[in-house]
């Protein structure tokens, strides 16, 4: 068992998983917020863009996005993000994970917007705030606070989904596990070791987000 | 779409003028993005007629896409049935009056929800193919079904539990007061109502299952994605092949989502359960349920009743 730590880069693989998850979470939050704003905008065309984005991305398998990004966009159409192959895979994995989870971030924020009482938006308008002002000063802060629980679920899903990067050859945790169980005996123990790694990554986050969503919930 | 009307007033003349400008900007944006994408595709020769012609022939469909679609649906159908059984058993187990059954079922459900589906799939595949559990040709399917069953079964177990918890207390009290045992109350009064209320969420889970069968790509299961890759190699049209596969997936899942929505609307119009209807919302993320979190939240954030003031 200790043998495996010596010959395979167990911690390195999980470090890559963490890096992938961190940058993708950041990207997904930014894109997701923009799409959420489009989806609640007063202009029908913007709403159409937002809705199409969510419906298209949400109904496509992440694996398909991942594979077509690296094979289609990078390899065939020559959209390299880096000249180093490993770096290219890493960057594309971040882009795809961000784009995919942005749809779920958007839906989480929208459910957060739905928790805001009508009176808040009406009050913001009645004191003369513009759409942008009422959004940034009154509605979005409350929407984020109301959306913490679904945002937490999305983050946890993102960490687990970062394993999909292994199908395009990123050397993150799931890919390493596949290599180890194929080459070594004692696969069951290895599986539980890696599973434990993911439990350690996600369980505290779940607990933290739950307490955060309780603490930050807007008292009404 | 009730949100927009909450956020802004009916536009006046100035706002309408501004909206018209913004509409033009938005339309230009769409056209611009489509043009850039199209230009890039054309530049690399992906829009050549030769690359799209195979989709007009029968062979591309009968030899690749339809078998792929069939494999995707087969894996999804078997997984969803097994996951339903798994979920029912462990969901009821978590509601058991016996403490150690509750604890064991709880640990199993939380564990399989926290572990990535792909990790289980890789492991099951190696386990099966090394020990020769199934015929070599069935190993990939078996691994896909195993992983999807364990994960989605755990999510369904949580749905069962939260569905029963969401029922009004009067239902179980009424059962107990007419002399049923807790077990009988659960089985004959609470569970049937919870299952009906869960129906839309279960169908939403089917979308997750269909999407997750694509993970079988990683273990050589010949589902739609893998078949379209093979198709792409055969006709040297990888990019168009993926585009067609994406469209097929989107149509399939979008129809499923709409169907779930229709079932939910029907249930809400003609309630045959005392509990609130669970929607598809919390489960559409792959691995969307959070481990260790308050499972009752699976239902609550869905229909936030905006307090009227």
UniProtKB/TrEMBL annotation, chain A:
Any Pfam family hit: BPD_transp_1
Family matches, as InterPro entries: AA_ABC_transptr_permease_3TM, ArtM/GltK/GlnP/TcyL/YhdX-like, MetI-like, MetI-like_sf
Record keywords: Amino-acid transport, Cell membrane, Membrane, Transmembrane, Transmembrane helix, Transport
Chief location of this protein within or outside the cell: membrane
Source domain of life: Bacteria
A GO molecular-function descriptor: transmembrane transporter activity
SUPFAM superfamilies hit by this protein: MetI-like
Membrane topology: Multi-pass membrane protein
GO biological process: amino acid transport
Annotated TM spans: 20-41, 62-83, 89-109, 187-210
Domain ABC transmembrane type-1 per the UniProt entry, residue ranges: 14-211
GO CC terms, sorted: ATP-binding cassette (ABC) transporter complex
Gene3D superfamilies assigned: MetI-like (1.10.3720.10)
Subcellular localization, as worded in the UniProt entry: Cell membrane
Recorded family membership: Belongs to the binding-protein-dependent transport system permease family. HisMQ subfamily.
Official protein name in the record: Glutamate transport system permease protein GluC
Protein source organism: Micropruina glycogenica
Lineage summary: Bacteria, Bacillati, Actinomycetota, Actinomycetes, Propionibacteriales
Gene: gluC
Automatic annotation (TrEMBL), chain B:
Coiled-coil regions, chain positions: none
Subcellular location(s) of the protein: Cell membrane
Gene Ontology terms for molecular function: transmembrane transporter activity
Cellular component GO terms, alphabetical: ATP-binding cassette (ABC) transporter complex
Superkingdom: Bacteria
Main subcellular location of this protein, as a coarse class: membrane
Location of the ABC transmembrane type-1 domain: 69-260
Membrane-spanning segments: 21-41, 61-91, 103-125, 137-160, 194-219, 239-260
Keywords carried by this UniProt record: Cell membrane, Membrane, Transmembrane, Transmembrane helix, Transport
Stretches the record annotates as Disordered: 273-309
Designated name of the protein: Putative glutamate transporter permease protein (GluD)
Species per Swiss-Prot/TrEMBL record: Micropruina glycogenica
């Amino acid at each position: 068992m200790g043998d495996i730590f010596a010959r395979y880069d167990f911690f390195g693989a999980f470090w890559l998983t963490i890096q992938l998850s961190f940058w993708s979470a950041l990207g997904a939050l930014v894109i997701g917020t923009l799409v959420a704003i489009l989806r609640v905008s007063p202009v029908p065309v913007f709403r159409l863009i937002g809705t199409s984005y969510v419906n298209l991305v949400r109904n496509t398998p992440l694996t398909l996005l991942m594979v077509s990004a690296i094979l289609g966009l990078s390899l065939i159409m020559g959209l390299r993000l880096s000249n180093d192959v490993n770096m290219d895979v890493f960057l594309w994995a971040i882009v795809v994970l961000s784009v995919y989870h942005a749809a779920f971030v958007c839906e989480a924020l929208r459910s957060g917007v739905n928790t805001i009482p009508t009176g808040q938006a009406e009050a913001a308008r009645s004191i003369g705030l513009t759409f942008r002002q009422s959004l940034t000063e009154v509605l979005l802060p409350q929407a984020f606070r109301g959306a913490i629980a679904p945002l937490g679920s999305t983050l946890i899903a993102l960490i687990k989904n970062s394993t999909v990067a292994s199908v395009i050859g990123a050397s993150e945790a799931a890919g390493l596990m596949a290599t180890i169980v194929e080459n070594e005996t004692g696969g069951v123990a290895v599986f539980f070791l890696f599973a434990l790694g993911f439990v350690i990554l996600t369980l505290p986050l779940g607990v933290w987000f739950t307490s955060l969503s309780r603490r930050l919930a807007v008292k009404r | 779409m009730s949100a927009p009307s909450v956020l802004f007033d009916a536009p006046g003349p100035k706002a309408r003028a501004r909206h018209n400008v913004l509409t033009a900007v938005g339309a230009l944006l769409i056209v611009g993005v489509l043009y850039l994408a199209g230009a890039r595709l054309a530049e690399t020769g992906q829009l050549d007629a030769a690359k799209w012609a195979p989709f007009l022939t029968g062979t591309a469909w009968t030899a690749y896409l339809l078998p792929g679609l069939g494999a995707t649906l087969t894996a999804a159908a078997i997984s969803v049935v097994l996951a339903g059984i798994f979920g029912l058993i462990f969901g009821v187990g978590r509601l058991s009056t016996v403490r150690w059954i509750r604890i064991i079922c709880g640990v199993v459900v939380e564990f399989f929800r926290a572990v990535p589906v792909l990790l289980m799939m890789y492991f099951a595949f190696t386990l099966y193919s090394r020990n020769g559990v199934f015929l070599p040709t069935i190993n990939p399917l078996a691994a896909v079904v195993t992983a999807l069953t364990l994960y989605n079964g755990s999510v369904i177990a949580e749905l069962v539990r939260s569905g029963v918890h969401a029922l009004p207390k009067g239902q179980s009290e009424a059962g107990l007061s007419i002399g049923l045992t807790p077990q009988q109350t659960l089985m004959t009064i609470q569970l049937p109502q919870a299952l009906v209320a869960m129906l839309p969420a279960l169908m939403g889970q089917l979308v997750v299952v269909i999407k997750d069968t694509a993970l079988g790509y990683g273990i050589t299961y010949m589902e739609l994605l893998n078949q379209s890759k093979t198709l792409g190699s055969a006709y040297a049209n990888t990019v168009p092949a993926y585009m067609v596969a994406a469209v097929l997936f989107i149509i399939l899942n979008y129809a499923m989502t709409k169907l779930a929505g229709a079932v939910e609307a029907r249930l809400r119009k003609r309630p045959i359960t005392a509990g609130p209807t669970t929607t598809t919302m919390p489960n559409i993320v792959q691995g969307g349920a959070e481990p260790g979190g308050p499972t009752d939240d699976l239902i609550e954030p869905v229909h936030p009743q905006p307090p009227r003031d």
